[in-house]
Amino acid sequence: MQLQSSIVSGLNQVPAYVVAQVLGSTLASGTLRLLFDGKPEHFFGTIPAGSNLQSLVLEFIISFYLMFVISGVATDNRAIGELAGLAVGATVLLNVLIAGPISGASMNPARTLGPAFIANRFEGIWVYMVGPICGTVSGAWAYNIIRFTNKPLREITRSGSFLKSLNFTKN
């Protein structure tokens, strides 16, 4: 019952969080447009450089990876919390390097919506709504499936490493 009430409480906060994200993204994009003369070639948003399908698949995959890593390092008490920022930052960097040239590597619908509102450019906007949302939900779901175990961390790492099972001292 405790878990159910905390889930309902968390879901009640989602609409305000979404509004805050989109409002922040819109205000930031508006500020950039004012600072840099608002010329059409200065579009700070994301639009597919490849096909919509390529961008959709890439946004799904990179959002999946990002949420999987976040779930692992920021929510699991078995992870080293001090390294969470490094792990998440490295994941974002790799995602941008891989998907940036094709999809823009949005990973967040609000990051796409704000600039689209300011510039009135909505080409392929559905890609950035569907891909990241489905990717993050799938990433969290996948992590939760493998997360739940009764084994302590030292037992998981002891049995999980094939290097430890090799015995190099034998002749």
UniProtKB/TrEMBL annotation:
<dbReference type="InterPro" id="IPR034294">
    <property type="entry name" value="Aquaporin_transptr"/>
</dbReference>
<keyword id="KW-0813">Transport</keyword>
<dbReference type="GO" id="GO:0015267">
    <property type="term" value="F:channel activity"/>
</dbReference>
<dbReference type="Pfam" id="PF00230">
    <property type="entry name" value="MIP"/>
</dbReference>
<feature type="transmembrane region" description="Helical">
    <location>
        <begin position="86"/>
        <end position="105"/>
    </location>
</feature>
<comment type="similarity">
    <text>Belongs to the MIP/aquaporin (TC 1.A.8) family.</text>
</comment>
<dbReference type="InterPro" id="IPR023271">
    <property type="entry name" value="Aquaporin-like"/>
</dbReference>
<keyword id="KW-0472">Membrane</keyword>
<protein>
    <recommendedName>
        <fullName>Aquaporin NIP1-1-like</fullName>
    </recommendedName>
</protein>
<keyword id="KW-1133">Transmembrane helix</keyword>
<dbReference type="InterPro" id="IPR000425">
    <property type="entry name" value="MIP"/>
</dbReference>
<feature type="transmembrane region" description="Helical">
    <location>
        <begin position="14"/>
        <end position="36"/>
    </location>
</feature>
<feature type="transmembrane region" description="Helical">
    <location>
        <begin position="56"/>
        <end position="74"/>
    </location>
</feature>
<feature type="transmembrane region" description="Helical">
    <location>
        <begin position="125"/>
        <end position="146"/>
    </location>
</feature>
<keyword id="KW-0812">Transmembrane</keyword>
<dbReference type="GO" id="GO:0016020">
    <property type="term" value="C:membrane"/>
</dbReference>
